[in-house]
Every structure is written in structure tokens, then in C-alpha cells.
Amino acid sequence: MVLTAGVIAVQGDVAEHAGAIERAAARHGERVDVHEVRTAGVVPDCDLLAMPGGESTAISRLLGREGIDTEIVDHVAAGKPLLATCAGLIVAARDAGDPRVDTLGLIDVTVDRNAFGRQVDSFETRLEVAGLEEPFPAVFIRAPLIDEVGDGVEVLAEHDGRAVAVRDPPVVATAFHPELTDVSRVHDLAFFDRE
Ligand code: GLN
Hints:
Distance between the termini: 21 Å
Helix content: 25-40%
Number of domains: 1
CATH topology: Rossmann fold
Strand order of the largest sheet: 2-1-3-4-11-10-9
Bound molecules: glutamine
Radius of gyration: 15 Å
Order of helices and strands: EHEEHHEHEHEEEEEEH
Structural class: alpha/beta
CATH class: Alpha Beta
């Protein structure tokens, strides 16, 4: 069987996510066709989805305009996996404290959009991530900070005592950019190593 993957491509790191999904699938002996999602009608055929970083206000607006937002909500409601990274995490959250971002409520967390950004623009650090055997090289770029974490949400990684990777099945979300390193282990965790 060939899996169908979608990368939300209205804005953000699309090719990098596509590459990471292909590497993760190859590691697991799975075949995958990756589609870039720019219009409605693609997500309903996808077995797994990635929502990249970029600018959450723009992503939110374009998802709504194209009618992709409700398709992503249906995808998650059907129990199919979604990996949401950085701005993707912001859009997937319950609340982002910014009226310009129409959050989809796919993970029970609240986020502060540019929390790290106000202190430091970008940085890289090795993070202990639950379920990964080695520290993960995490790249943070104007990253959001996760504020409130709901009861059903598992914190997979913390930085300075704050959650930066969470799982609220079937969604995995990270404040950092796992697609920007050639280690595809977070994509494994989100799509192929699910418990
Ligand atoms: N802080 C940005 C936003 O609000 C996200 C940055 C990123 O995705 N690298 O959209």
C-alpha cells in the first residue's frame, strides 16, 4: 500500500517537510506519495498531514479562504495523524491570544505567538524528546511558547521548564522546526511510531 501524505503549502517550509516525511517512511519500509496542499479537496484523501511553520496569521487566513481549515479539523476528528510545527502549532492550538489567528482547536494548549522571538530571534539546542533515543537538534525560529497544557496532552519535550513539544493524539506539535535538520525522528514519532 502507498500512503498519501499532505503538506499544507499555503505558506512555509513545504519541501523540507516533504523530504522528512519521505525519509521517515523509508526508515519504516513504507511507500508514500507526498502532495502539497494549496486548495480544498486534497486533505480528505490524505492518511497523514504536516502543517509547517511560517507566519501563523497568513496561514490561518489562507486556510480559511481556501476552505482547507475544516478539512484539517475533519482529518484529526477521524483520528488521522497531524504534525504541526511552529506557526502550525499556533494555528492548531486552542488559543493563540491573537484575533488575527483563527485557531483550529486541534490540541488542547494555548500559545504565546512570539514568546521566544521577543527575547532571541532564533537558536538551536539539543532536546531530550520522549520516545526518541537520542537528543534532537531542535531549531527555534521566532518560536511560540506553549502556555497552558490541557489534561489529555502529553509533554514530549521541555526547554527551560516550558513545554516545546506535545502530543494530543492524533496530533504531535512542536514549537521548533524538526524539518530543518536531516534527522527525521520527530516525523517518525508523529506518523510511524505511534503507540
Ligand atoms: N512566530 C511566528 C508566527 O506567529 C511563527 C514563526 C515560525 O513558524 N518560524 O507565525
